[in-house]
Amino acid sequence: MGKFILIYKGEHNLNKDLLIIAPEYYSFVKDQTESIAIFFSNVKVLVRHNPIAEISTILPINSLTNFRKKNLINCINIPHNISVFPTPVYYAPLDFFYKRLGEQHFCAVNSIIRKNYFHFDLMHAHATWSSGYVGARLKDLYHVPFLVTAHGYDIYSLPFKDAIWKKKIEYVLNKADAVITVSQSNLKCIQKLDVDTPVYIIPNGFRSDLFSPREMAASRRVLGLPLDRKILLNVGNLEPVKGQKYLIDAVNEIIKERKDILCIVVGMGSEIRTLEKQILFQGLGEYVLLVGKKPHDEIPLWINACDIFVLPSLNEGNPTVMFEALGCGKPIIGTKVGGVPEVIFSEDYGLVVEPADIGDLADKIMMALDRKWDQKKILAYAKQFTWENIAKETLKVFTKISV
């Protein structure tokens, strides 16, 4: 059952039941939950799921693929004190309906709580909307302390779209007993709002048992990748904000200088057809591969097969995959957005570039390919970001609000 199976019996065990409301139980929520579960008696996770997304199993609607239930929930090797409950909520993916999603989500969650006679002493909501709204409403109903984590889009963009969104997100943050956010950049966004709740900065992390160094050549052989190419890797949803189009443009510039590179993009999303056309139009079929979405436990192979990990995002919170790459000892080329420059603050760990700047990205990739990186130094730095260490910091916040 994995290393998280035994319940922690030390002095820090809260001996309480935890309720988690989340938009997924697949990667970062799963890993964090299974790290912190050792400090609790029981953990119940309610994952919002839009059944409309299942249409993409029969119709080629790429924007819905990532939201299918199988891509949101992964219960492999789940600890025995964690239970995961899919929470169906029907809504159209439009701003008009998304603004009304909070109350629908709350009703769906509360129905499951009542039907199953859940007991819980603490709540943790991942993302201010709509999970955070659910937590705020449940706090009033059950009088249970409530912690919300503001991850990325839900705090750097959503509250600034219009006055209605601002009011909704401020309501959630002020109802919370504590707020966690993942970067100084996110904190600055919260400080622009009318919020009095204490805010703690705790970054994302990585599973050290899964993301660790492996021999590069062996990883490439397993994946059927060439041994004689310099491999650039990007892992992420194929959405405009993730900036893969700029990475492809940068590769088009790099091959004017050197032909020994291969750029691999792992992921699926609404931009897949646009990126395929871009690769075809620029004649980059030999240099850029879109390999689709891969299981989370296969990602370490792809990371260990690469020379450089690239994050060309236009905006971010604090991407988990950045820590996973560091955990494998890989240098990062990342844009100066969100928490990326806060983590890659030294050229010992990677290089940062201006977002949407193709020339800067191409130049920094070229520099990184020519540089001899100190893997031991990267690995030593990455240790602080293991989910075990992040869980201990999160536990401190739970302890503060549960007194």
UniProtKB/TrEMBL annotation:
MF GO annotations: glycosyltransferase activity
Domain of life, per lineage: Archaea
Domain Glycosyl transferase family: 218-384
One Pfam family cited in the UniProt record for this chain: Glycos_transf_1
Keywords (A to Z) from UniProt: Transferase
InterPro entries: Glyco_trans_1, Glyco_trans_4-like_N, Glycosyltransferase_grp1
Domain called Glycosyltransferase subfamily 4-like N-terminal: residue spans: 107-206
Protein name per Swiss-Prot or TrEMBL: Glycosyltransferase
Organism: Methanoregula formicica (strain DSM 22288 / NBRC 105244 / SMSP)
